[in-house]
């Protein structure tokens, strides 16, 4: 639960946070966590045991509570407290509408059970992709440290990727972005490996009216610093058997 002194004021429902430019439900809450909470989470990410990090060519990532094996989460381990609180508690506290108590009310486990942490120094990104079938199609992304643009793409008639994004979403530090349904299954998402996002304006950014502050981007530019993202999802398949197998896996 949030302490009474929490500076965060969440919307009464997600309706007010809807990104209307997008074809399926998507929401953006600019100040989802406080600066203190952002710093506390970043500290936990940075001081996690070395074995937690998986180094890719340009980017590194952590998975909590563990990697998936054949799209399955082995063992019903909970998320650590620092990933659960305040983020999960807060996600579950916001009604989607009058008839939908929260984003995960109809998901298999009623809450996100998995977090992917991606770190993007300037000039790194993630290729356009779809997230696949392992997850319930509600993706909650908390951004830390720096702003950047997430691009949404669609495939052309011949199946090839159209390299021009159809929409761009600017994610500020401490924001929550939620994407669902078709945005998850029909479109691809990616982040360009650049140091500066360009051509940022009311005309080009789908969530412009929901930004905490558009003023840093009056020149149309966003100079990136290292941005860390926490991607919260509900993994559909959880194997309790994993609890017994866990001692076989060296990873924490
Ligand atoms: O960092 C992000 O915002 C996107 C991450 C992502 O798409 C993924 O890990 O599947
Ligand atoms: Fe993704």
Automatic annotation (TrEMBL):
InterPro entries: AlkB-like, AlkB-like_sf, ALKBH6, Oxoglu/Fe-dep_dioxygenase_dom. GO terms for cellular component: nucleus. Pfam families: 2OG-FeII_Oxy_2. It is found in: Nucleus. Belongs to the alkB family. Keywords: Dioxygenase, Iron, Metal-binding, Nucleus, Oxidoreductase. GO terms for molecular function: dioxygenase activity; metal ion binding. This is Alpha-ketoglutarate-dependent dioxygenase alkB 6. The lineage of its organism: Eukaryota, Fungi, Dikarya, Ascomycota, Pezizomycotina. It comes from Parachaetomium inaequale. Residues 111-236 form the Fe2OG dioxygenase domain.
């Amino acid at each position: 639960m949030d302490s009474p002194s929490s500076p965060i004021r969440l919307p009464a429902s997600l309706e007010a946070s809807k990104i209307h430019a997008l074809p399926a439900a998507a929401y953006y809450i600019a100040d989802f966590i406080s600066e203190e909470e952002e710093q506390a989470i970043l500290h936990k990410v940075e001081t996690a045991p070395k074995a937690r990090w998986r180094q890719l060519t340009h980017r590194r990532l952590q998975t909590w509570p563990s990697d998936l094996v054949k799209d399955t989460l082995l063992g019903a381990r909970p998320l650590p407290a620092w990933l659960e609180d305040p983020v999960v508690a807060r996600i579950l506290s916001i009604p989607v509408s009058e008839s939908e108590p929260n984003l995960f009310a109809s998901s298999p486990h009623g809450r996100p059970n998995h977090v992917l942490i991606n770190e993007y120094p300037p000039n790194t990104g993630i290729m356009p992709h779809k997230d696949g079938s392992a997850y319930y199609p509600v993706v909650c992304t908390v951004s830390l440290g720096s702003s950047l643009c997430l691009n949404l793409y669609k495939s052309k008639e011949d199946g090839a990727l159209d390299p021009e994004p159809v929409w761009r979403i600017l994610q500020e530090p401490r924001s929550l972005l939620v994407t669902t349904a078709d945005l998850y299954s029909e479109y691809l998402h990616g982040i360009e490996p650049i140091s500066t996002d360009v051509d940022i304006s009311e005309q080009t950014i789908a969530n412009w009216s929901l930004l905490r502050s558009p003023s840093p981007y009056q020149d149309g530019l966003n100079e990136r610093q290292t941005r860390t993202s926490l991607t919260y999802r509900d993994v559909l398949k959880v194997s309790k058997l994993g609890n017994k197998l866990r001692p076989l896996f060296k990873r924490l």
